[in-house]
Amino acid sequence: MKTIALGVLASGRGSNLQAILDASQAGSLPATVRIVVSDVADAHALERARRHGVEARHVDPKAFPTREAFDRAVMAILGETRVDLVCLAGFMRLLTPAFVAAYRHRIMNIHPALLPAFPGLHVQGKAVDHGVKFAGCTVHFVDEGVDTGPIIIQAAVPVYDDDTAETLSARILRQEHRIYPRAIQLFAEGRLEVQGRRVICRGAARAEGTAALMNP
Ligand code: GRF
To answer: What whole-number distance in Å separates Cα of residue 109 and Cα of residue 68?
Structure first.
């Protein structure tokens, strides 16, 4: 099977990047991270990339007059590297419409909530405060909105009475590290097809009958 080239954009600690690098290195992912770009000079994600021998670039937003100009610089790097898929992994900037259009259905994002509930920031704490009994994470294709694009994969976790934003975040993060490599794998295998808002996954297994989760 052909291996696809990934470009990962990250602003922070990069644990999702690490999960992707590990899956790729283990040979369980027909995808290779070719470049990591960060808008933050000392993002730990850049360090993780270098440790894996992956090119790591800082692009300073302050060096550009507009968001469009910043995005053009990032797109130029991704273009030179010929990436097939762009993965946002804790990238704290919104992409401009020109970027989204240039990579339509070829940009993924991971979000620590069961979208469309709780888009935006600090969502694990919002889930606890709201009193939901399940939370989780979502990998979706990026469109022009904030966390609104077609959903590829989700994982649900229970929320317990003594949870805090921190304990729930940790439980969700473990699932993020499972579903992001899996979403990339499905893409690389050519099994995803976007039909309007829906992402159809060819050959997906299904659980019938008693598969529902209940909490408490
Ligand atoms: C994750 O919770 C991800 O869902 C959100 O930002 C966080 C990034 O964490 N978009 P990391 O940098 O991958 O560790």
So the answer is: 19
Q: Report pTM.
A: 0.97
- The dihedral through the CA atoms of 23, 28, 34, 38 has a sign that is negative
Alpha helices in the chain (DSSP H): 15-25, 44-51, 67-81, 97-102, 123-130, 165-188
User: 3-state DSSP call for residue 110?
Assistant: strand
Cβ-contact 168, 135 below 8 angstroms = yes
- Angle at CA 60, nearest 5°, toward 58 and 63? 145
So what's the pLDDT on residue 212? 86
- Please identify, by atom number, the ligand 1 atom nearest to the C-alpha of residue 18: 13
**Beta strand 55-58 pairing with 192-195:** unpaired
The H or E element that residue 86 is part of is strand 85-88
Ligand 1 mutation pick, 176, 179, 184, max ligand atoms within 8 A of CB? 176
* pLDDT tens per residue, range 40-62: 999 999 999 999 999 999 999 99
Name the strand (E) or helix (H) holding 38.
strand 31-38
